[in-house]
Write a structure and sequence with these properties.
462 residues, five-stranded parallel beta sheet, 19 strands, 22% strand, alpha/beta, eight-stranded mixed beta sheet
Length: 462
């Protein structure tokens, strides 16, 4: 057993936010009790040494923690972690990552991507299907899942919607589900044929699986990755207007309403898109939406400073759009924060702006960006941030995680919300980030998956 002592436990499932002790046993959370309910024996006074501790009690359904029973039989803990001053939260869940494996492993692979995820506090990630070959067969899916099992965190994977991302012929979605696909997506390539999208949603609904959509109509785009507006005018290019996103969001929200499918609008960037998701939800559509940390914290002007490091699809948009994204996150229109972790080599990103590939990495900065720009600025509470980064992503995919209560998986992240650090180095193979050099608050100290430590800051006590 492991005791995490005296941390600020934040459980988005119950809304509990308070000082508590957490006991882990057999890959599960055994107990969550009021701080001090688990009495320390003499052996436990030295950090990292086994301790004889008394404890007990169970978490109530309402999230109010009863005291432990100190008269219970003393128990030996394999490890005592002093979490005073730290937040203890459910392990983060990212529904949108690109690990480039198979086929493009010079950018990232499943093992380096998972290590970056653990470093950032993530215990579950869902890989996109735009690898080489695409994850459109059971064989490729099994490769990703088997490699993922070797990493220490939960690496899940979506199957492709269309064969070879052609947007014309459905994959064998039923076979992919049976082989372990978490959901379906052609992320990176928009599905242009509305009738095909309807068939795909009908099949996803039949299988009770989520389908995630990249919403950019290429008919309106001349240069992708840069917003059409004041900055693109300054650069002398046309770019990618919000209209390209808005028309597909509107179409797919209505198809979702018609089919009853569970649909995730990926990396939403447009304020108008947020309004359409809000309307669709009010009409009863099972539409979810995700937003990236970079769309919440940067605008189109970042391209002038960071060049291709601020180029992504969909692009960074205006300050008005950014504020509407934050509002959508606050009022629940946007359900999740997802990184769209998209590694590229330095050589690729060094190409001219209109030729460089779109995308940035994000697993190692996501939590700190959320704390620095959303919690510290009063837009979200810590409970709400954990809801967006852990509970809701788990709910979309029907995963048994995202909460801190007795019987839940021992998937946890411990972090110091006040510790400042400068973005400099990455565990990821890639370093294509516009946040390099930024001073952020919120440092991951420990990541635990299935009760096993998968990342630990050297300075952590215990």
């Amino acid at each position: 057993m492991v005791l995490i002592r005296g941390g600020r436990v934040v459980d988005p499932a119950s809304g509990f936010d308070g000082i508590a002790d957490v006991v882990l046993e057999g890959g599960k959370i055994a107990r969550v009790v009021k701080a001090g309910s688990v009495a320390e024996g003499a052996e436990g006074r030295r950090a990292g040494q086994p301790a004889r501790l008394t404890g007990g009690g169970e978490e109530s359904a309402a999230g109010q923690l009863p005291p432990g029973k100190k008269d219970q039989e003393a128990m030996v803990y394999e490890r005592v972690i002093d979490a005073q001053g730290l937040v203890v939260a459910p392990g983060l869940v990212d529904v949108h990552v690109h690990f480039r494996d198979p086929g493009l492993t010079y950018k990232e692979d499943i093992h380096t991507g998972a290590a970056a995820a653990a470093h950032g506090g993530f215990t579950t990630v869902i890989c996109m299907a735009n690898t080489q070959p695409k994850v459109d067969t059971v064989e490729t899916l099994r490769y990703v899942l088997e490699e993922g099992k070797k990493t220490g965190i939960h690496v899940l994977c979506c199957g492709a919607v269309s064969k070879d991302f052609g947007g014309q012929e459905l994959t064998d979605m039923e076979a992919l589900k049976a082989a372990g696909a978490a959901g379906f997506t052609d992320d990176g390539i928009p599905l242009k044929d509305g009738a095909f999208v309807r068939r795909a949603m009908e099949e996803a609904a039949r299988l009770d699986m989520p389908i995630s959509l990249h919403e950019e109509d290429p008919a309106f785009i001349r240069q992708n990755g840069i917003n059409h507006g004041a900055v693109s005018d300054q650069l002398g290019i046309y770019g990618s207007p919000a209209l390209a996103e808005d028309v597909l969001v509107a179409r797919d929200c209505m198809i979702a309403l018609e089919t009853g499918a569970k649909v995730d609008i990926q990396h939403i960037s447009s304020g108008h898109g947020v309004a359409m998701v809000r309307l669709a939800k009010s009409l009863g559509a099972k539409v979810w939406a995700e937003v990236t940390p970079h769309h919440l914290t940067l605008t189109e002007s970042a391209v002038l400073t960071h060049g291709s490091l601020a180029k992504m699809n969909p692009p960074l948009r205006t300050e008005k759009d950014r504020q509407l994204l934050i509002q959508g996150l606050k009022d629940g229109t946007i359900d999740m924060i997802a990184t769209d972790h998209a590694p590229h080599s330095a050589k690729e990103k060094a190409k001219p702006l209109t030729e460089a590939p779109s995308g940035i990495i994000g697993l190692e900065t996501s939590l700190a960006l959320g704390i620095t720009h959303l919690v510290k600025k009063g837009y979200l509470t810590m409970v709400e941030l954990m809801e967006k980064m852990s509970l809701n992503p788990a709910r979309l995919y029907g995963l048994d995680c995202g909460r801190i209560e007795a019987g839940a998986p021992a998937d946890l992240v411990l972090f110091d919300e006040g510790e400042a650090w400068t973005v400099e180095h990455f565990v990821s193979k890639a370093s294509n980030s516009p946040f390099i050099g930024q001073r952020l608050e919120g440092k991951v100290k420990l990541t635990v998956c299935d009760g096993r430590v998968v990342y630990q800051d050297p300075e952590l006590r215990g």
